């Protein structure tokens, strides 16, 4: 009886066990990377003082009514080739705007990309200022005087909308 047992090589020298273990190992690595992404940065969309923000809405409505009483409107246009933001601030007959104007371009999801500018309109209300390239995004535009007595607010989808006009609600 000559039955020679053929010795098979150990399991770790074959490729099939490694191929079967590769799927779960890749999933574990992807889970670890996803967890790192989720916890590495603070969520920017959650407002911690939501109650205080809610109480400020009444003050904002008062500022909107003040802009409507003055009949304010602002037109903005960004020229990417020149890197210049130009515009005109106009008021209804008898309404005047004195002093500098604050422009806040708020990025839709990333507050660190927000842009705040101080504009000084001339006697006709025209202004221009250098601005780095705007990111392709939805921007929330807020224009207000330096004393924060009035405001104009709107949304700008740049570059789909090359210019935007904000008017106070009547």
How would you portray this structure in words?
By secondary structure, the protein is α+β, with helices and mostly antiparallel strands. 28% of the residues lie in helices and 31% in strands. The protein contains two helices and eight strands, in the order H-H-E-E-E-E-E-E-E-E. The strands form two sheets. A four-stranded antiparallel β-sheet has the order 5-2-1-8, with no helix packed on it. The chain starts with 14 loop residues before the first helix and ends with a strand.
The main sheet comes to:
4 strands, antiparallel
What is the average per-residue confidence, as pLDDT, rounded to a whole number? 85
Radius of gyration: 29 Å
Portion of residues in beta strands equals: 25-35%
Proportion of residues in helical segments: 25-40%
User: Which shape, going by the Cα principal axes?
Assistant: elongated
What's the tally of helices? Answer: 2
Total count of strands: 8
Query: Structural class of the secondary elements?
Result: alpha+beta
Q: What order do the strands of the largest sheet run in, or round the barrel if closed? A: 5-2-1-8
Task: Point out poorly predicted stretches.
Answer: none
Structure at a glance:
The chain has 170 residues and is α+β, with helices and mostly antiparallel strands. 28% of the residues lie in helices and 31% in strands.
Keyphrases for this structure?
31% strand; four-stranded antiparallel sheet; 170 residues
């Amino acid at each position: 009886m000559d039955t020679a047992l053929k010795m098979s090589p150990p399991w770790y020298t074959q490729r099939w066990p490694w191929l079967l273990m590769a799927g779960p190992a890749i999933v574990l690595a992807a889970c670890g990377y996803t967890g790192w992404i989720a916890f590495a940065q603070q969520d920017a969309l959650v407002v911690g003082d939501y109650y205080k923000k809610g109480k400020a809405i009444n003050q904002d409505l008062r500022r909107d009514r003040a802009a409507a009483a003055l009949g304010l409107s602002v037109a903005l246009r960004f020229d990417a080739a020149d890197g210049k933001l130009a515009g005109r601030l106009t008021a209804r007959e008898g309404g005047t705007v004195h002093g500098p104007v604050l422009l806040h371009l708020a990025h839709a999801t990333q507050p660190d990309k927000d842009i705040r500018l101080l504009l000084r309109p001339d006697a006709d209300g025209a202004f221009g200022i250098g601005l780095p390239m705007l990111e392709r995004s939805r921007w929330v535009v807020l224009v207000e005087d330096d004393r924060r007595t009035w405001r104009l607010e709107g949304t700008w989808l740049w570059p789909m909308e090359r210019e935007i006009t904000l008017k106070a609600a009547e």
